[in-house]
Design brief:
This protein is α+β, with helices and mostly antiparallel strands. It contains one helix and four strands, in the order αββββ. It has a domain of 37 residues. The strands form two sheets. It has a two-stranded antiparallel ribbon. It has a two-stranded antiparallel ribbon with strand order 3-4. A hairpin with a 6-residue loop joins strand 1 and strand 2.
């Protein structure tokens, strides 16, 4: 079994983990409804994508 020769310092460990943070998702305002929607996703409520009707609107 491989065993490290030296203890990894806290600074070195934390430098490695500096890229592990989660990023917040970007929300944009829908031009027609004013609701917050994710970019590049179909709005399931209205059935639109990029201003075009793609699916049937719900209810």
């Amino acid at each position: 079994m491989a065993v490290p020769k030296r203890k990894t310092s806290k600074a070195r460990r934390d430098k490695r983990r500096s890229h592990h943070a989660l990023t917040a998702t970007n929300w944009v305002e829908d031009a027609q409804t004013g609701e917050a929607v994710r970019p590049h996703h179909i709005d399931l409520k209205s059935g639109t994508y990029k201003g075009r009707q793609v699916l049937k609107a719900r209810g």
